């Protein structure tokens, strides 16, 4: 090049031009590590362990089971359980949430309410311990109020494949999904009992858990006939709270206000030495808000003679359209007489564990004097 400049072929100020290398193809460039690469290198986190338990409570001073929006200061069963679990697990983030099988109203009692919750990641190391559930149940009962008790706390079954309905209500599609065990959606049926004191004077010991009916019940034949008519699948919209009907319409539930009562019976028993205690048993697949209390109020009105049996049957067959007519003729039964006895599941929970608890030997050994 210097010889070319000496011969005058190139000006002195000219610089040689060197063509750069051709750029690499985008596919040849080094790509950044993607998220799926990190997932293959790092072990996946263990799935959350779900626990289920049976909760018994006296609902006299509680405002129902579910937390109330805007009035967090009101005591509820869900709030009491979540506060104790937060304290036991060290206030994890996100907080522990409790889900119940039935959203009982304020003042309603329960002997067999079933709940579930997920253990936080900080306690995954102890999930394999066989005594962890028993220790957790013991701690919860020590921290909970005297009106609430937990029993039969066990790990929930693993998730299972289920068919669900998805899409527009007019064009539903069945889709298979892997769903975890749920205290609400896995339940098949529930059992309720309503207690009524028939004596002239109320009993102070049972008055907290039973309704005292001052009017004499003279038409037991009409009461039994109405309970037999309720058995089967019917539209119980006339016995539901207006908010429950609006909720079913908002979520576009396929069954709406239709429920199935498998069995409904009535019997007069002697309970705790008190004679003439009327037990109304209901075994059904689910209940709407205030549905059972309105049904009990209808039974009392028919048995006392304030409502004819034909009118009650017309309200049953009329559905939601007869709700206002029924409301003017009956009184809603008080909540203190209603109790949730048991929730049924396909695997037999909690009956299996209850039988194990009854057959467990006692830890106390009392010497017998010969």
UniProtKB/TrEMBL annotation:
<feature type="region of interest" description="Disordered">
    <location>
        <begin position="24"/>
        <end position="49"/>
    </location>
</feature>
<dbReference type="InterPro" id="IPR020103">
    <property type="entry name" value="PsdUridine_synth_cat_dom_sf"/>
</dbReference>
<keyword id="KW-0413">Isomerase</keyword>
<dbReference type="InterPro" id="IPR020094">
    <property type="entry name" value="TruA/RsuA/RluB/E/F_N"/>
</dbReference>
<dbReference type="GO" id="GO:0160147">
    <property type="term" value="F:tRNA pseudouridine(38-40) synthase activity"/>
</dbReference>
<protein>
    <recommendedName>
        <fullName>tRNA pseudouridine synthase</fullName>
        <ecNumber>5.4.99.12</ecNumber>
    </recommendedName>
</protein>
<comment type="similarity">
    <text>Belongs to the tRNA pseudouridine synthase TruA family.</text>
</comment>
<dbReference type="GO" id="GO:0003723">
    <property type="term" value="F:RNA binding"/>
</dbReference>
<dbReference type="Pfam" id="PF01416">
    <property type="entry name" value="PseudoU_synth_1"/>
</dbReference>
<dbReference type="InterPro" id="IPR001406">
    <property type="entry name" value="PsdUridine_synth_TruA"/>
</dbReference>
<feature type="compositionally biased region" description="Basic residues">
    <location>
        <begin position="26"/>
        <end position="35"/>
    </location>
</feature>
<dbReference type="InterPro" id="IPR020097">
    <property type="entry name" value="PsdUridine_synth_TruA_a/b_dom"/>
</dbReference>
<feature type="domain" description="Pseudouridine synthase I TruA alpha/beta">
    <location>
        <begin position="53"/>
        <end position="117"/>
    </location>
</feature>
<dbReference type="InterPro" id="IPR020095">
    <property type="entry name" value="PsdUridine_synth_TruA_C"/>
</dbReference>
<dbReference type="GO" id="GO:0031119">
    <property type="term" value="P:tRNA pseudouridine synthesis"/>
</dbReference>
<keyword id="KW-0819">tRNA processing</keyword>
<feature type="domain" description="Pseudouridine synthase I TruA alpha/beta">
    <location>
        <begin position="228"/>
        <end position="346"/>
    </location>
</feature>
């Amino acid at each position: 090049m210097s010889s070319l400049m000496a011969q005058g072929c190139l000006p002195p100020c000219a610089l040689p031009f060197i063509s750069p290398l051709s750029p690499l193809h985008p596919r040849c460039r080094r790509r950044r590590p993607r998220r799926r690469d990190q997932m293959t290198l790092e072990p996946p986190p263990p799935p959350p362990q779900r626990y289920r338990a049976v909760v018994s409570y006296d609902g006299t001073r509680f405002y129902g089971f579910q937390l109330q929006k805007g009035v967090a200061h009101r005591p509820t069963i869900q709030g009491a359980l979540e506060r104790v679990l937060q304290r036991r697990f060290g206030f994890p983030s996100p907080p522990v949430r409790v889900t119940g099988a039935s959203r009982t109203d304020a003042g309603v009692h329960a002997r067999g309410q079933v709940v579930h919750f997920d253990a936080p990641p900080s306690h995954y190391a102890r999930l394999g311990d066989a005594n962890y559930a028993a220790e957790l149940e013991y701690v919860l009962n020590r921290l909970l109020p005297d009106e609430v008790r937990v029993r039969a706390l066990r790990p929930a079954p693993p998730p299972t494949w289920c068919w669900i309905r998805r899409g527009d209500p007019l064009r539903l599609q069945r889709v298979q999904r892997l769903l975890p065990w749920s205290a609400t959606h896995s339940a098949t049926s529930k059992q309720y009992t309503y207690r009524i004191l028939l004596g002239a004077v109320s009993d102070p010991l049972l008055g907290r858990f039973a309704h005292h009916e001052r009017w004499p019940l003279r038409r037991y034949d009409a009461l039994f006939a109405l309970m037999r008519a309720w058995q089967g699948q019917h539209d119980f919209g006339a016995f539901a709270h207006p908010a429950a009907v609006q909720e079913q319409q908002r979520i576009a539930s396929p069954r709406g206000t239709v429920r199935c009562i498998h069995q409904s019976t009535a019997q007069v028993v002697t309970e705790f030495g008190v004679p003439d205690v009327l037990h109304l048993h209901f075994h059904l697949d689910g209940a709407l808000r205030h549905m059972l209390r309105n049904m009990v109020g209808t039974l009392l009105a028919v048995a006392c003679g304030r409502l004819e049996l034909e009118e009650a049957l017309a309200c049953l067959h009329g559905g939601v359209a007869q709700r206002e007519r029924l409301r003017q003729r009956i009184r809603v039964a008080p909540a203190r007489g209603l109790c949730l006895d048991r929730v049924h599941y396909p695997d037999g929970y909690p009956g299996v564990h209850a039988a194990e608890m009854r057959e467990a030997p006692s830890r106390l050994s009392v010497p017998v004097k010969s």
